[in-house]
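During the second half of the funding period, the structural biology subgroup turned its attention to how the target accommodates small molecules. The most pressing case was zinc ion, which had performed well in the primary screen but for which no bound structure existed. We therefore specified the complex as follows and requested a full 3D prediction, including the ligand pose.
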Amino acid sequence: MRTLDLRTSKPRKPRNPGTVEPWNRGALLLLTILSIATLTPLVATAETTVIIRRYTADDRLSGRYQYVPFEIPAGTTQIRIEQTYDKAGGTNAVDLGLVEPGSLELGSRGLRGWSGGARSEIVLGPGTASPGYRPGPLPAGRWHVILGLYKVAPAGVEVTLRVTLAATPSTKRWYAGDLHLHTVHSDGNTEPAGVLDMARDAGLDFVAITDHNNTTHALAMPPDPTRRPLHIVGEEITTPGGHANVWGMKPGDWLDFRLGANDRRMNDLASAASARGALFSINHPVADCDACDWTQPIPDTTGAIEVWNGGLGPQAGAIAFWDDLLRKGKRVTGVASSDWHRPPGFIGAGSVRVLAESLTEQAILQAVAGGAVVMMRDPKSPPPVFTVSSDGRSAAVGETLRVPAGAPLDIAVTVPSFTSPGLAACPADCTVELSWNGRKIDTARAATGQASFRRRAENGYLRVTVLSGTTIVALTNPVFVSTK
Ligand SMILES: [Zn+2]
Ligand SMILES: [Zn+2]
C-alpha cells in the first residue's frame, strides 16, 4: 500500500462530550490517508480513515456502548477495521462490534456482528466475514463501530480505529432466468434434462426447477455448476392457502407442505427455508385458480413475490399485494416467471433479469434477495436500466438513495433496442411509466432510448414500467428513496 496523500482535519469540538472525550486537549484527530492498493488486479482502490477516541471511566458509566460513525460509499466491497489501544496491564478492555446503516436502538436488526475482546481486526464483505460477523452486501451510508467499554483504567483509554474501505470494480452483469418451472416430478410433462435444454434454447442463463412439494427432479438430474443454463434446485410448497417457491434446496431435500390455510406454521416453514440458505418467495398471490391465492401469513423472511406469472403479464391484484408490502416497508423483490408445465407454453414467458456478480447459485439468489431484478415479458430482451441520482449519488434497482428531504432527484431510464414477440419494437414504439409508492405519476415516450423524470426527494420508492402499445414488456423493481 502506497501513501499518496495525507490530510488532517482541523481539530474540532466533539458534538457530544458525554460520549466523545477530547483527545490531546480538546482535539479529535481525524486522519484520512488516501492510498492506492494493488492487492489483486481487480482491487482498484482502498481508503483508510484513522479515528482516535479517548474514553474515561465516567464514560464507561454513562455509556457502556459507544458508537463511532464512519461513512461508506456505494460500491464498497470490503470493510476492514483494526483496533489498537493500550491494555494497561489488563486495566483497559474495549470490545468490538459493528452496526450497518439504520437504527442504533436496542433490538435493531442492523447489528452486523460482535467479536467482543476476541479480536482486534475484523474484515467483512459480500462473500466472507470474520467470525462473529455476517457476510453480505455492504449498504452505502453511515455505519458505526461499537466500542464496548468493558474496563477503563482511571487514566482513561485512547482507542485508535483504522477503517479501510476497499472497492473492487464491479463485474456485475445481467443474467436472464426463469425461477418457476415444472417437470414430470410433479404435474409437468417433460423430464428435467429436457426442461434445461429448452431453457437454454430459449436464451436463459439460469433456471430454478420448482416441482410441487418435492425436489426429486434433482436426484434424476443433479445440478452441475459448470453446465448452462445454471440449474437451481427449488420446491413449490403447495398449500390450501397458497403456493411459495423456495430456491437453493439440496437435491432430494424437502420442506413439508402439509399446512392448512391461514396457518401460522408458515412462518416456521419459511424460517426453515432460511436455515437451509434457501430463499422464500410467495407465488401468484392473487390468481384465478382454486386455493392459489395467498391467504397464509407473510413470513418475515419472505424474500420475493411473483407478481408476474406466466405469459399474461403482471396481474393487477398481485402488484397491489406487492405494493401493500412495500408501503409497509417490507423489502420484497418482485419476480416474473413462466410457471411452465408443458407446451404450448413458453419457458421464459415471464422471466427475470438479475444483475449479479457471477452466474452462480449464491450470486444469483443474493442479487434476487437484494432486489437487483427487472421483470420481462420474454426471455431474450435486454432489460431497461433505471437509476435515480441526486447530488452526485446514484442508486439502481434494489438500492436506496439517501438524500435530504426535498433534494432534486434525476430519474433516468434507458430502454435498449428489442422486440418482444408479436409487439411493436422498443424503444421506438414504447412508453415508460413512472410510479411513486405504487401509484402511476408520469409517462414519457422512449423513442430515443432515453426517458427522464424529475421529482423532489421524500421517503418512498420509484418504479418503472415499459409498455409496447398497451402491453407491459418490462417492470422494474423499486429504487428506494430515504430522507432519514
Ligand atoms: Zn403454483
Ligand atoms: Zn407452479
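Two results from this model are relevant to the next phase. Residues 316-327 form the longest helix (12 residues). The pocket of zinc ion (ligand 1) is lined by residues 236, 243, 283-284, 292 (CB under 6 Å).
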